[in-house]
Amino acid sequence: MRVLGFDIGTTSIGFAVIDHLPETEQGRILRLGVRVFPEARDPEGTPFNQTRRQKRMARRQLRRRRQRRRALNEALGSAGLLPRYGHPEWSATMAADPYLLRKRGLSEALSPHEVGRAIYHLAKHRHFSGRELEEDVDQAEEDSDEKAAKSDRDETTRALRDAGTTLGAWLSLRGPQERKRGLHAHRSDVVNEFEALWEAQAPHHAILRDTSFKAAIQDTVFAQRPVFWRKNTLGECRFMPGEDLCPKGAWLSQQRRMLEKLNNLGVGGNARPLDEDERAAIMDRLQTQASMTWAGVRAALKPLYKARGEAGVEKRLKFNLEIGGDRGLLGNTVEAKLARVFGGDWADHPHKQAIRDAVHRRLWAADYGEIGDQRVIILSAPERRQRRAEAVSTFIADFAITQEQAKQLSEMTFPTGWEPFSVKALEAFMPHLKAGVRFGVLVNAPEWEEWRNSTFPDRDRPTGEVLDRLPSPAVREERERIAKLRNPTVVRTQNELRKVVNNLIGLYGKPDMIRVEVARDVGKSKREREETEAARRKQEKRRRDAVKDLGENGIHEPSRRDIERWLLWKESRERCPYTGDQIGFDALFREGRFDVEHIWPRWRSFDDSFRNKTLCRRDVNLEKGDRTPFEYLAHDPDRWDAVKRRLQEMIAAKGGNGMSAGKVKRFLAECLPDEFASRQLNDTGYAARQAVAFLKRLWPDVGPEAPVHVQAVTGRVTARLRELWGLNNILADNGEKTRADHRHHAIDALTVACTHPGMTNRLSRYWQAKDDPRAAEPSLPPPWTTIRADAEKAVTNIVVSHRVRKKVSGPLHKDTVYGDTGNDVSTKSGTYREFVTRKRLESISKTELGCICDSRVREVVTGWVNERGGDPKRAFPPYPRLGDDKPEIRKVRLWTRQQVRLMAPVSTGYADLGANHHIAIYRTAAGRVVFDVVSLFEAARRVARREPIVRRAPEDGAAFVMSLAPGDALQLTEGNKAGCWIVQGAWSNGQIVVENANDAAHATTNRPNAASLLARGARKVAVDPIGRVRPAND
Questions:
Q1: Contact call for residues 264 and 433 (beta carbons, < 8 A)
Q2: Alpha carbon of 723 to those of 32, 76, 833, 939: distances in Å?
């Protein structure tokens, strides 16, 4: 049987082609290989498309801000309230203190231009509007930054109320050394000031008494684009394409979820189905509860067994879902709330089903608005309140209920999200779910295929389609499928997998079986499974305690973040690890004085898990910024020692509550370990699961009864097998798996290819014997006796394939914009131009301190940094000043030297060119080797001018030798550098960065120039996705 094995990661695909007959324990390796490609994320873990979106959004915001100010300037100018832009009087008007004008304008007459200046300043600092999350009907969860900013806004509003004045007048009282910027305030405070200022000045200026003019100015200053989302991001019902999906907050969705769990419930480990009476007894109570514990289930069954003469039987019952670790049964949240609203009248209410169906639909329509058939906007809080108030009367009129009942209905909140099924599909499922049919059987089982075909004639059904090759994105249907994945890592992985699979099929034909490694934490020994299960149950108990305590303190429907915050609170013994402050309940959950903080910065560690979080006083969290605890406090030994003492007090005793030893160790680490980020495992697992569905398309699509041709194998199982079969020491002498060589992915893929279901069972029996102290030392034979020797031979023949990056895409230059001083400086290495830019103090390096332009500022900042340990990145507020009455120095002007040819002219100055696209190598008639390093910026200009990106015929008549871009392969045949080398990039001075094709740890990085490469006999070769080498013919 021919088998393909794949080890799929976020930046690589290891593959193996074997012929293997497990029954006879015979096999042979046909090919091993590795395909390496860049991750679809930047080095900090952000997807490239997300970075593009963020920068595009920033440009849009700047453009809209300019448009708003330009429109306001024109409107005020036409009314005589501002001089014409560019006129000398414009500069004089703008030089006036706007805060003082905003204060004076409340009590005395201002000149027309002063009124315009004050309004223009309000437009520039109109502050946050948002959705007023405390009133948001979908109870959107706030992160710590949102909560902190909201707390600041509320504090500002309270201060204004206590002072009895407006925002501008309040800020005008601050001295020159106090900051006015960086303040958080509500948009409503600015609107109130606008109204007060306009009302005070209207008696003095006739134009201000024109209501239409006021409405136009107010709209220009405060108009806000609504928050929206696109409908096409929801997905599609596979049973009824084109129909609207059912919201999870709808009664129908809640009923489906409840019946699904109830129908899966069985008694005992063999899962005896509930009989009709047992099911009815549970259903009667479960229907009006949000959830039911197992004790509640037994209580519901107690009267039934007593009536049957079997009193007490329920106490001995164990349910299959309970044994599996579930906490209880899901109820119907919406039904439970409706029962509370109507009380005893609900059971026999004449409009019961109509209310069930209408309540979510009507309140959703009150909270959201649709724009065509593409977008849904979230309405503002005032609009939502108005629409919900209007819903009260419709509830009364349509359902003949009381005013109080209608009001309670209008205040209901619902779970958020969407079902993967439409309303009509759920309506078709419901009769069978009520009859006890299991939901999984209903939607997937072969015996229900005829019902599905007759009920859903337009559903996505087996097509019988057979593909000889995996489809290319050039096909429209494939592009549409890829667009639905919405994960750049998975898209990149599947694209590379397609290339590998299609090449292997072309060489070896379609396989009988494909196995893919899925990174999941299973396949453990008995002891490991027991430890994991015990830890899981302990954490579940803590979460239940959190929900109970939060409810007792007024948070009756806690979010995931609330529960996490509670767990961190108890873990740290209700104290801040950094300051020792006692953390009260209100200070944490209502006042936002303490943040959930990442111990290791998330952008550096890629770790957003519980083990990387703690609580921190908000102002200290802001000071800490993107630093580890050690980086933040190492310069202050007393504070650092105090933190270490507190951590020892917080550490958990064995089996008790408190901070884990691992988290304390992370807290005290002086640097981040050099290891794979946790997101690697998560992305790998998701990518592999998606790959299984992708690879299944190579066989006939005949529905659930189709034979299995693609199997998913867990990473934990293959890791054990690889070790037991002695495959780890093929690339490493110590018997440990090495990640320093790309070829380890091929060895993983070989193990995956050999891991048939029976092998997993063998491993289970192996660990059972291993854990039995009475049993002899067990062994696990390899798939065939010579696999170790065969693999070692095959690995030596691997040529690792690297994806070539010749596409002209990505940032054309770096973000920092420099000003040109016009000063040229000649040095031994050439002529350089002096450029200047501004940077925040936290962003400058130690060497940049000497590049601060102003000598006085340089002296003050250098002294301030030296007082704090000599490293600007470890310095913290208060910021330095040039004098006690001078403002803080937060940014400094720096100069830098760079060759003009390496700077790109942009609209507001110059920017560093950044990445290079390729290097072209030529040989002159005299035999001299010359080169041309082409930046990405220049390559884009050539594309725009429709010129060849690589110039093969330069103007000086030199002969073209080759061009090298990242990912290109070079074959060296001389010296100790012989082998295949991969180009990583080219420097502007002509050095070419190369690495050995097998090197995954960047240990062989070399930077020869073009002449030395040609002198060593380097020739450019093309390596296809499965490692076949041919001349590049460049």
A1: no
A2: 18, 77, 58, 48
Write phi, then psi, for 388 (nearest 5 degrees): -70, -35
Positive/negative CA dihedral, 1013, 1014, 1017, 1018: positive
Task: Please give the single-letter amino acid code of residue 54.
Answer: Q
**Residue 960 DSSP SS3:** strand
**How do beta strands 959-964 and 916-923 pair?**
antiparallel
User: What whole-number distance in Å separates Cα of residue 278 and Cα of residue 280?
Assistant: 5
Q: What is the dihedral of CA 731, 736, 739, 740, to 10 degrees?
A: -60
**Element (H or E) spanning 36, and its range?**
strand 26-36
Torsion of CA 43, 46, 47, 50, to 10 degrees: -140
Pairing status of strand 817-827 against strand 929-935? unpaired
Contact between residue 118 and residue 176 where contact means Cβ atoms under 8 Å apart = no
Amino acid letter, 727 = L
C-alpha–C-alpha distance, residues 751 and 310, integer Å = 55
**CB 701 within 8 Å of CB 693:** no
> Per residue in 976-1031, pLDDT tens?
788 999 999 999 999 999 999 999 989 999 999 999 999 989 999 999 999 999 99
pLDDT at 532 over 70: no
Burial of 133 (0-12, 13-18, 19+ CB in 10 A): middle
* Distances, alpha carbon 264 to alpha carbons 254, 278, 324, 796, in Å: 16, 13, 12, 52
Q: How far is CA 148 from CA 137, 182, 589, 773, in A?
A: 21, 13, 11, 56
In order of 327, 573, 877, the CA distances from 540 in angstroms are 9, 19, 41
Residues 6+ apart with CB under 8 A from 853: 836, 892, 893, 894, 895
CA within 13 Å, CB half, 169: 18
The answer to whether residue 739 scores a pLDDT higher than 50 is yes
Spatial contact of 669 and 590, defined as CB atoms under 8 Å apart: no
DSSP letter for 41, please: B
Which has the closest alpha carbon to 359: 330, 388, 331?
388
- Count of helices and strands (H, E) across the chain: 38, 30
Cα–Cα separations (whole angstroms), residue 191 to 82, 128, 172, 437: 21, 11, 18, 58
DSSP calls for 249-274 = TSHHHHHHHHHHHHHH-EETTTTEEP
CB 550 within 8 A of CB 570: no
In degrees, to the nearest 5, what angle opens at C-alpha 807 toward C-alphas 803 and 812? 125
Q: State the Cα–Cα distance between residues 194 and 209, nearest whole angstrom.
A: 14
Q: How far apart are CA 330 and CA 439, in angstroms?
A: 15
Share of the chain above pLDDT 70, in %: 89
Running DSSP on this structure, what letter comes out for residue 413? -
Closest CA to 852 of 842, 862, 843: 862
Res 144 pLDDT > 60: no
Q: What would the DSSP string read from start to end of 144-163? A: HHHHHHHHHHHHHHHHHHHH
Q: CB-based burial of residue 357 (10 Å sphere; 0-12 exposed, 13-18 middle, 19+ buried)?
A: middle
Specify which residues 376 forms β-bridges with. 229, 370
Give the DSSP per-residue string, 60-117. Answer: HHHHHHHHHHHHHHHHHHHTTSSPPTTSHHHHHHHHS-HHHHHHHTTTSPPPHHHHHH
* pLDDT, tens only, 897-915: 998 888 989 888 999 988 9
Distance from C-alpha of 307 to C-alpha of 255, rounded to nearest angstrom: 29
Give the least confident one: 56-70, 129-143, 179-193, 945-959. Answer: 129-143
User: Which residues, other chains included, contact 47 with Cβ-Cβ below 8 Å and sequence gap of 6+?
Assistant: 40, 41, 488, 489
DSSP 698: G
